[in-house]
Design brief:
single chain; 135 residues; alpha+beta; 2 domains; nine-stranded mixed β-sheet; 30% helix
């Protein structure tokens, strides 16, 4: 199976940079599996789990809180707003983001479009919280 370069970057640090055989990313329009020779694509990322299968077969998972991915036939770079390995996840971090989003929604001083985006983000965080609890 062909492999390709994958980088997962957050503002805090470079989480991963290695050769992988596939990556499953939580794209805004649905989960996407990226493999070598993928068609060039750019997509936004919603809060979710990134699953990485290394060239040696080892699988690792990361929680991401939004961002975007640049996919080329030779590689993929995921620039996350925030990311952490699942093994290092502090569950309270998701709870804090949910509470902050609820508080911002409660302010009510936002336009309809911004309110809709906040509601969508809250739904994605709540779904992510359920996934992490089950894992």
């Amino acid at each position: 199976m062909a492999d390709f370069n994958f980088e997962l970057v957050s503002p805090e640090r470079l989480l991963l940079s290695e050769r992988v055989s596939e990556v499953v990313i939580p794209a805004t329009e649905g989960e996407m599996t990226v493999m070598a020779n993928h068609a060039p694509t750019m997509t936004t990322i919603k809060p979710g789990i990134v699953t990485v299968k290394a060239a040696d077969g080892k699988v690792t998972r990361y929680v991401v809180f939004g961002g975007f991915a640049d996919i080329l036939p030779t590689g993929c770079t995921l620039l996350a707003e925030s990311a952490v390995p699942v093994s290092e996840l502090d569950r309270s971090a998701i709870d804090k983001r949910i509470e902050a989003t609820k508080a911002e929604l409660a302010e009510g001083s936002h336009g309809d479009e911004y309110k809709t985006r906040l509601e969508q983000f809250l739904a994605e965080l709540t779904q992510l919280n359920g996934i992490v609890v089950a894992a």
